[in-house]
Design a protein that fits this description.
Blueprint (H helix, E strand, L loop, with lengths): L7 E4 L11 E3 L6 E3 L6 E3 L2 H7 L5 E3 L4 E5 L2 E5 L3 H8 L6 H11 L9 H17 L1 H8 L29 E5 L3 H9 L4 E4 L4 H7 L7 E3 L3 H4 L10 E11 L9 E3 L9 E4 L11 E9 L6 E2 L3 H15 L4 E3 L11 H14 L4
Parallel strand pairs: 1-9, 6-12, 10-16
Antiparallel strand pairs: 2-3, 4-8, 5-8, 6-7, 11-14, 11-15, 12-13, 13-14
The structure holds uridine-5'-diphosphate.
């Protein structure tokens, strides 16, 4: 809008902006939390980084995740400490990690799925302890039922580096994601309509000569065509508050074991070192019938998506942008990049 000087109307089904990045201050504790799960921004893409810096100040935040395994807190991605703690080793440097990898990981000619991806990186023992059941709790599928891309997200570190990401830029918006989006939308030519369902709006308004950028699930858009539905995973968030300083040693603790139903617990107070004399924790369980959060990358869904994609390519005046419309497990930077590329390719809009 600011470049083309054209009017934009944003239709938002929910009662707030910001999509799944939406955050707010919890009244009881004064701590900023994300309504739909923790969002950690990271990128190597200069264009994306420059773009987001137009709308708020970003504070460097190197995210770390700890996994609770064998009654111990260990770093994930697997690093030297993880191997030493869980496999009873005494590795000191990269050379020794290489030896351990050589001995303990499995080599495949071609990696076909996420089980093989993980075993080729961290070996069978750590796969069983840290990946297999976590993945089942998250996806209701074992790693061998998912494309290798899912576990390709989690590397192995041949060092003592405990960071979750190794990207050049890792940061959180100083004033929260909602404020970041608010700044992005601050333009006289942009109107936002909350509590508005796109399909109902489309039925009641003539959009014939209007360019539409659709960001919802692609299969919902083509509901009437009668193809099989794509699968998605959704999350249930369980909130607890405590009168204590910290509940756990880190912002995110993963629980890969079968003994508890949740995948992870997020303690938001850790992010940007927020101050409060209370704390709030949110644990996550997953389901397949809530709001779609994750596309499920496997062969069946991807070939079905390709059928929908063909329909999308022939849809006049309508463009499909973002994680749900592309049925891709995009990180935030990839989602932003997807929009920036779309804009540059369709600048005639
Ligand atoms: N994963 C795992 N154990 C972990 C962390 C991740 O098995 O301790 C697997 C799991 O299948 C998960 C995927 O790796 O869904 C990607 O993890 P990531 O933390 O990137 O997921 P997100 O934060 O997007 O939910």
């Amino acid at each position: 809008t600011s470049i083309l000087k054209k009017k934009g109307l944003i239709l938002e089904k929910r009662n707030h902006i910001g999509g799944n990045c939406y955050d707010y201050i919890d009244k009881e504790t004064g701590i900023r939390i994300n309504k739909y799960g923790a969002h950690l921004f990271h990128t190597n893409n200069e264009k994306v980084w420059n773009y987001i810096n137009n709308f708020d100040e970003w504070i460097r935040w190197e995210h770390k995740v700890i996994s609770f395994v064998d009654n111990k807190f260990v770093p994930i991605p697997v690093n030297i400490t993880t191997i030493n703690e869980l496999c009873n080793e005494n590795i000191k440097d990269e050379k020794e990690v290489d030896k351990w990898i050589e001995k303990n990981t499995i080599k495949y000619d071609k990696i076909e799925n996420s089980e093989q991806m993980a075993k080729s990186r961290i070996g069978k023992v750590l796969y069983n302890k840290m990946v297999k059941d976590y993945t089942y709790k998250q996806w209701k599928k074992y790693p061998n039922e998912l494309n290798s891309s899912v576990l390709a997200r989690i590397p192995i570190r041949k060092s003592f580096d405990t960071r979750y990401f190794s990207d050049k830029y890792q940061a959180l918006p100083k004033n929260g994601y909602t404020n970041f989006f608010k700044n992005m939308l601050k333009n006289k030519l942009i109107t936002v309509k909350l509590n508005t369902d796109f399909f109902k709006f489309k039925k009641n308004n003539n959009l014939d000569n209007i360019k539409i950028i659709y960001t919802g699930p692609i299969d919902l858009y083509f509901d009437k065509v009668g193809y099989e539905k794509l699968e998605y995973r959704s999350i249930d968030f369980h909130i607890k508050r405590f009168d204590m300083n910290y509940y756990q040693p880190n912002s995110v603790v993963n629980y890969p074991g079968k003994d508890v139903p949740f995948t992870r617990i997020v303690e938001y107070k850790h992010f940007l070192n927020q101050k409060s004399n209370k704390t709030i924790i949110i644990s996550e369980t997953t389901n397949d019938n809530g709001d779609p959060y994750y596309p499920i990358p496997n062969k069946k869904n991807i070939s079905l998506y390709n059928k929908y994609k063909k329909l999308a390519e022939n849809e006049k005046n309508t463009y499909f942008v973002g994680r749900l419309a592309n049925y891709k497990y995009f990180n935030m930077d990839q989602a932003i990049n997807n929009s920036l590329i779309f804009f540059n390719e369709n600048i005639i809009i």
